[in-house]
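quick one if you have a minute, typing this from the bus. theres a chain ive been looking at and ive put its sequence and its fold in C-alpha cell form underneath. please have a look and point out which stretches look like helix strand or loop to you. anything you notice is useful, everything is just below.

***
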Amino acid sequence: MGYGFLDIAMTPAVRAAQDRLGVAHLWQDFKGHRAFDRFTDQEAAFITSRDSFYMATTSETGWPYVQHRGGPQGFLTVLDDRSLAFADQRGNRQYISVGNLSTNDKVSLFLMDYPRRARLKIYALAEIVALDADPALTARVPGATAPKAERIIRLHLEAFDWNCPQYITPRFTEAELTEALRPVRDRIAELEAENAALRAALQTQGGAERGDGVLSPGDDAMRDEEWRR
C-alpha cells in the first residue's frame, strides 16, 4: 500500500534524515492507502475557487524556481480528475518557468486558502500547448483567448496531498472583508438612521416645550419693538 504524494517526496535522502532525527518509524509503519492520484469533487471545488497559486520548477543546473500565478477564480481549470490547465499570460518576459519546463517537466503546486487555513499540494507533469494546437482545449481554458495569452500549460496529476493548518496565518482579500463586514455596515447604517430620527424628535419636542418654534414675520416685529423699549 502506498501514500502517493509521500512516495514521491520521500527520497532516500529524506528517509535518511527521518531516521537520523528519530521519526522514521512514523512512516515505515504506515498501513493506510492514500494514492491521491485522482481529484475528487472536494479538490475540484477547492481548485476552481482559487484566484492564485504557486508553481515550482527546476532548472537544468538544479536550482528551483517558484512563481506566483494569479487570475480570476477558476483561471486554473480542472479538465478532468487527473489534469488541470491554465493560460500562461505574458508577464516580465523572463520565461524562467517556460525554460525550466523545456528540460524538466516536473512541477509542484501550492494552492492556499488563507481564510480557512487550508493548503493543497500537487505534484504534476507539465505540458506546454500552443494556443492553436488544440482548439477544444483553448475553448475550455479561461483567458486562453486574451490578448496577452501566450500558451496553455496543461498539468498531468501525479499525486496531491492536503496539509495541516498549522502555521498558516489567516489573510483576507478586500472582497472577502467587504462581504464579512456587510452585516456590521448595515447595522451601523440602521443605528445612524435611528440616532438621526431621535435627534430630530428631541429637537422638535424641546422647541415645543420652550415655545420657540418657528416665528412668523409678525412675531419678529413684536420682538424688535420690545427690544427698542
